Amino acid sequence: MRKSYFFLLFCVITLFSCVPQRKIVYVQSNEDRTAYEYLVKNKKSLRIEPFDMLYISIGSLDQQGYNFFDQQKGSSAAISISESSLAILSYTVNDSGYISLPILGKLKLKGLTVDEASVSIKNFTKNVLNNPIVTVRFVNNSITVLGEVARPGSYNYYNEQLNIFHALGLAGDITEYGNRRKITLMREKNNIIYKYHLDVTKDEIYKSDYYYLRPNDVIYIEPLKIRRWGVRNFNELPLNVLFTGITTAVTTYLLYKSIKN
Which string of DSSP letters, residue by residue, matches 176-199? Predict the structure, then answer.
C-alpha cells in the first residue's frame, strides 16, 4: 500500500511539473521553403522616426579646409570609433522629423529609409560641397524584453533590422515556462501605445507585420499557467496546498483501509 502511495505521489508531481513539447517548440510548420523565400524578399526597410539617433558621415572631394564636415571628422579622430561611440557623433531627429546640420540648417528626414536619407542629404549639401559622399546609419537603437526569459532587460542593437527571434536571443531565449503562443509586443507611435500578440510556435509569425521590430519596442513573455500555479518553486503556496491536500487524502484513505482490515 505504501508503494501505491508513493507511486501516486510521483505521478502527480510528474504530471504537474512537465511542460508539453508542443508549447515550447518554435515555428511548427509543414510548409515548404518557397514561402519563406518569398517573405524574405518582401521585408520592409526601417524608416526614420522622431527621436531616432543617426550617424551621418559627409565627405567630398574638397580639401579639408573647405569641408566643415571633414573638419568635424578630424576633430573627433582621437575618439575610438566603435558601435557604441558612434552615438557621440550622431544627430537626433527632433519631434517634427528634422535634423540640424552645421551651417546648412534643418533637413526633414522623417519617413525616409537610411538610403533615401543619404540621397536627401547629398542633394542638400551639393551646393556647398564638391561631389558629396554621404553615409547614414541608425545608432543606439534598443528594445526591452521582459517576463519569462533568461535575461530580462533592455538591449542595444546596431543592425537596421531586428526580428523577434533576434530579440529573444539577446535575452537568452524564453524559459521553459514562458508562453510562446502569447507574446505581447508594445509599441509607441504618435504618442499612442499599441499592443500586439505574437505566436512564435506558428510559421505565420514570418507573415506578421510585427516580425521585424522597431527601436524602443517592448516585448513581454507571459508565464504559462503551470508557472503561475507555482510548479517551479516547491515553496509557493498553490503547490503546497495541492500536495497537502493530496497527502491528506491519501493518508486518510490508508488509515481507513487499515482500520477496516
Answer: TTEEEEEEEEEEEETTEEEEEEE-
Residues 147 and 182: beta-carbon distance below 8 Å? no
Look at residue 251 and give its three-state secondary structure.
helix
Question: How far is the C-alpha of 211 from the C-alpha of 43, rounded, in Å?
Answer: 9
CA–CA gap between residue 99 and residue 108 (Å, rounded)? 6
Give the whole-angstrom CA distance, residue 68 versus residue 103.
Answer: 9
- The one-letter code for the residue type at 8 is L
Say how far residue 131 (Cα) sits from the centre of its chain: 39
Written as nine digits, the cell of 199 is 505566436
Say how far apart CA 48 and CA 91 lie, in whole Å. Answer: 12
Give tens-digit pLDDT for 26-52.
Answer: 555 665 555 566 565 556 778 898 888
- Here the cell at position 70 is 571633414
The SS3 assignment for 244 reads helix
